[in-house]
Amino acid sequence: xxxxxxxxxxxxxxxxxxxxxxxxxxxxxxLFIGDHAGNVIPLSLGTLGLDDAERVRHIAWDIGVxxxxxRLATAMDAVxxxxxxxxxxxxxxxxxxxxxxxxxxxxxTVVPGxxxxxxxxxxxxxxxxxxxxxAAIAAEIARRSAVGQPTVLIALHSFTPVFGGVARPWxxxxxxxxxxxxxxxxxLAVLRREADLTVGDNEPYRMDLIDYTVPRHAYPAGLPYAExxxxxxxxxxxxxxxxxxxRLERVLTAALG
Length: 257
Hints:
The protein is α/β, with parallel strands linked by helices. The protein is 30% helix and 17% strand. It is built from 6 helices and 11 strands. It has helices at residues 52-55, 65-76, 119-146, 182-191, 213-217, 238-256, and strands at residues 19-22, 30-34, 79-83, 105-106, 109-110, 152-159, 162-163, 166-167, 172-175, 199-201, 225-231. The strands form 3 sheets. The protein has a 7-stranded mixed sheet, with helices on both faces. Helix 4 links the parallel strand 9 (172-175) and strand 10 (199-201). Helix 2 (65-76) crosses helix 6 (238-256) and helix 4 crosses helix 6 (238-256). The relative contact order is 0.17. The model has no long low-confidence stretch (mean pLDDT 96). This is N-formylglutamate amidohydrolase. Pfam families: FGase (PF05013). InterPro entries: N-FG_amidohydro, UCP029730.
């Protein structure tokens, strides 16, 4: 997807486009999206005041999702729409007015570059990153609809194994709420047949009014969907991503029926 990053005051020469589409035109009914797939920070924002270690932690992105989504797109001839920039710059799975859309603190880490932002600063981040990403998803759904290609929207996320000092027992969770949750429920049923898995139903997070992307695109159109949360230690490297892509290809296909 070609976007002119220089049209935004947030970006300078050398910045990457805010969204990329992997395997455009893929024939699969599955449309994969990655709200937090990237951890890049626009050059004009420096490091947001964070050191290298903080910028690769779970606070900055969904670890493993980029590689997992790309493998699924290749294996299933599916489209994967993925975000480039860190959720600390702007969270593409939040509404414009959400308090944590540009978080000043995340999991105990203060983000100096997000302190005391003006309304203009906040609007620039949304216009440069959030809106093009959401527009790319809408455009892909519209393209598919125009040619009679069905869409099952699959949001790929990952979660940290320990949060707030508490270990999380699930390997994967399936999130769902409004709209048509039938596919998410079918995913749960198939995953629960995997003897080696502890599967979360709206765990470790619950899909609710905090979520933005799936409710925006799936609910009004009645699209089947699932928001998947895979534990980050399982997909942190290429071997784990390959194994989980193979598993999810099988589970997704079985759930579709």
